[in-house]
Amino acid sequence: MNEKCYAGVYILDAAYQFDKIYDYYMDEETRSKAGRGNYIIVPFGGGNKRRTGIIWEVKDSTDAEKTKPADKIIEVPALSEEQLGLAVFLKENTFCAIGEALKVIAPTGLKTGITVRYSINTDKFLADDLYENTSEKMRVVLNHLASQNATSESLKEEFGGNISHVMATLVKNGYVAEEITPERIVKEKFAKYASLNHEKYESELLGNPKALTERQHKAAEFLAANGDAPAAEILEELEISMSVLNALEKKKIIEIYEKEIFRDSSEDYEGLRNTAEPEFILSGSQKAAFGELLDLYKNKRPCAALLHGVTGSGKTHVIKALIDEVIAEGKQVIMLVPEIALTPQSIIFFKNYYKDRVKVLHSSLSAGEKFDTQRRIKNGEIDLVVGTRSAVFAPFKNLGLIIIDEEHEHTYKSEQKPYYHAREVARFRCAKNNAMMILSSATPLIESYYKAENKIYNLIKLDGRYNESELPEIIIADMRYDEPENKMLFLSAALRNEIAENLKNKEQTIIFQNRRGYYNFISCRSCGETVMCPNCTISLKLHAEDKNKTKTDKFRRTPSKLVCHYCGHTEEVETLCKKCGSDKLLNFGSGTQKCEDDLGEIFPEAEIIRMDSDSVSGKNSHMRILNSVKNEEADILIGTQMVTKGHNFKNVTLSGILYADQGLFLDDYRSNERTFETIVQVAGRAGRYEKNGRAVIQTYNPDNEIIKYAVNQDYEKFYGKEIKLRKAAVFPPFCDICVINIISEYENEAASTAKKTGEALRKCMNGDYRDVKAIVFGAFPANIYRLNRSFRMRFIIKCRLNKRTKEMLSVILTDINKQTTKKVSVNIDVNPNMI
Fold this sequence. Notes:
The chain is an alpha/beta fold. The protein is built from 26 helices and 34 strands. A 7-stranded parallel β-sheet has the order 15-16-14-17-18-13-19, with helices on both faces. Strands 5-2-1-4-3-6 form a 6-stranded mixed β-sheet. Strands 20-30-29-21-28-27 form a 6-stranded parallel β-sheet, with helices on both faces. Helix 22 links the parallel strand 29 and strand 30. Helix 2 crosses helix 3 (98-105).
């Protein structure tokens, strides 16, 4: 085979401006293993540093003047055509590099590391001209290698990070041989198992009953009764050592062998399955909705449906009925939920029906758990995956349905590269697989409902609660007149009375407070200085130590630390103002920790638990909290957004919002929408079963139209008003919003790059891309100008993200990144959560 062959390769860690196909020459051995989608090791850059790449094409010719030889194929399964297509989709629509896209698409276990081993060339080392052709440092390294071979990492530890240039020179001049080995970061897990040789055991007992010790008998009897078992389980159960099993193996009474085991976090949820899911019969309206969805699915064409039903209408059971049909056809399903906190509830529900054919995928899983789940999906062992945003990439080969539950939630949009929205990825995958996408919500996004009105999505409605139960009664607490007795305890008389009534009736309450921590900020009454984060232009929040408070403690905690909720900076609470030295420091606002203490003081008899990102930081902690509510061990659950989403508790009959106005007047076009959905969703947690529910909304603006629509749970009227405002002001769905972010630790670098970007935008829009219709605002500082020590400038562009617009933005991003140094980062975020 003398014909030349080349691989077109994307380098996985290439920056956006250098993200293109690079051609490499392949020898016969590499060519025999190479195919599109294979991982490969190649030399890259002036120093020929080894990089991992992905083969995009295999070809017989190249236009490149010079090509370097490829090193080795990494022998792991190649990426599928769909995964490669997804990478291109993300590159074109989120302005990321192919390698950045593959980090979220590719299974964890396929990601590899590279080990470079060096050995000395003895003949060259002993040559007479060694001193003439090498530096002193080179000779020190050669003497080290003469005594032992070494890896690149061990040499860095021994001689420092700059040793790479020395090694490159030694390899180039033939003094050292270099061997490159790809290694998987995550590998299969194996465990020792024991298997009983029944015939040998019985003959041993008959021939000489005393041939086995008492412990050996115990182990053999355990295997006789239970069959093959993990060695670790036998040792723990019988309280014996491994030497007992080794002795039995030596006597050929048992065989010890290794068996692959799958790491599976969904087994942690088994303890929560304390009751079997009752047989559920669809109501008339549910049957009608299911029938419409099934008809759409059976068309066998890509389609999308918006399932709009009030809270408690039983959308999940309608979806479950459709999942049954999809799985019966041999197809697979992805079910997305907005929060990890909702994953246990969904997994438990679906495991009752689909047993081990359903698995979970989310960011908190270990690399091993992700790897094993991905492999089982590819092997066809899984029918349904439940997970958060990243589960949309589950590598199903026969995908039939993707459901996005609570589709209005902002968590479906990634806030780090690549800046993708799970909905857009789901649409792409459904189009490629002739599959169906369902968006489900009681408060759909304005953009989604607009598409449903315009027949892009099919609108399917569930107008009433299941079993004709009533929507919760909403009580407005007008805080202008219903002031708390103690102004530091932000609890109206109306909400206090309703909580007391619930405690008396042994019913449960959910309280929503969308700020974590204890106090929101500290300010000096003498000079007005606010304690700020040294890394960000944002105030530090006061936090108390949770470890000092147990379930039965009712004392008020003292905030002991200041925390930045953006960069994580922590410092001790000062007693004197840093600016003027005054001791007149005052705490303002309240977070979930303070509300927990306030409620504990007012209702000392109540069992109160808190759910926010601080209280659920430990593994499975969110499961324990939700289970305590489900088992009615807690009287009051207080928390942030985590408590508003999709929870379904039988004995929760009261919900309360402490600060309903909090998001109403933010400088964001979505502020009305988010206020409406928060009120409706929090209210919807109450009275979902036989008992009637109530919701108390504390507000200073009871006459505000948005709050009135939410109180009446009238989505159509809210939508009608909001869509007119969006159209008049040209906001989505009547445009796309692209934000160009410019980030640098050096303020002058951020400013100068912003100036260059503005010039590039004007040049493009007045030149080759004058046909692109766009409105450009900026450059101006981001809302939080300094974040984690970096200054942030941005442009906001209203446009239609069509092919020409994407082409123009890609040209600008590439050119600007080529002009900047590593001190500046420039990226584009399409339709971000906040602008």
